[in-house]
Design brief:
This protein is α+β, with helices and mostly antiparallel strands. About 25% of the residues lie in helices and about 25% in strands. Bound molecules: zinc ion (ZN). The site of zinc ion has 6 residues, from loops.
């Protein structure tokens, strides 16, 4: 998710790889970084996106990785941090400060947590260290519910991962909620907020978080952005039966 006060340098036609909308004076661009196919949906957590795909999607949206000044992370699962580095380990975003939830950082950088993790989960710890390595001098850790940057406020949404954070993009009365992975597949987890995917690390906490976010998004009628929703990955949440449903934004 990228938000900025100025329009991108290049004017480009809207395409299926990205979606733009406004939150007050803030311009929000939702960019897909591609699809990872997994032979077995129950195996492991690490689904590393290819950095070349990330760069191609950013450039198609008129966003130059070299000009990105801030990257704000929801959590450290492999498919959300894989785009930070190239195959040779170098930084894709040479100018960017990297903001991370402090609890997420504490968990994934803890050797004790790593040693206690299941065999399937353990590689994700090494992956987190590797992806953040070229950014170590440029990492800021933010507290739950902190204002991470002007117009971007953290909304603690732990459960999917220990420090998972969603973000409220706000400008005046306008707001949008970046849900991250607190809700992945709307057809499953909006309709049935008490269901949980294999990727939720603390299911009871994730379910409570999901219900809280859905209630807020529906009550406040604000656009939501989900990192695993189909593009445009943006829409509004409506109550439906015993759960909710996503009304996708028009692409
Ligand atoms: Zn995740």
């Amino acid at each position: 998710m990228l938000a900025g006060r100025s329009a991108p340098a290049q004017a480009v036609a809207a395409g299926p790889a990205f979606h733009r909308f406004r939150v007050g004076a803030l311009a929000v661009t939702v960019v897909t970084d591609g699809t990872a196919l997994r032979p077995d949906a129950t195996r492991g957590l690490v689904v590393n996106a290819d950095a070349a795909q990330v760069e191609a999607a950013l450039r198609a949206a008129g966003l130059d990785p070299a000009r990105v000044t801030l990257i704000v992370h929801t959590h450290f699962h492999g498919d959300h941090i894989g785009g930070l580095t190239r195959a040779d380990g170098s930084a894709v975003f040479p100018q960017a400060t990297v903001a991370v939830p402090e609890r997420e950082w504490a968990f994934w950088m803890d050797e004790g947590e790593e040693s206690r993790a299941s065999e399937a989960r353990r590689p994700a710890f090494a992956n987190a260290r590797r992806r953040f390595a070229p950014y170590l001098q440029r990492i800021t850790r933010f507290a739950p519910d902190a204002e991470v940057a002007p117009g971007i406020r953290a909304v603690a949404s732990h459960g999917h991962s220990p420090g998972h954070s969603s973000f409220l993009i706000h400008d005046g009365n306008a707001q949008a909620l970046v849900i991250g992975d607190a809700i992945t597949t709307p057809a499953f987890f909006m309709a049935n907020p008490e269901w949980y995917p294999i990727f939720d690390m603390d299911p009871p906490q994730a379910v409570a978080t999901r219900k809280r976010l859905l209630d807020r998004a529906a009550s406040e009628r604000m656009p939501v952005i989900g990192y695993h929703f189909d593009m445009p990955a943006t829409g509004r949440v409506e109550r439906a039966g015993t759960g909710y449903r996503l009304v996708p934004a028009e692409a």
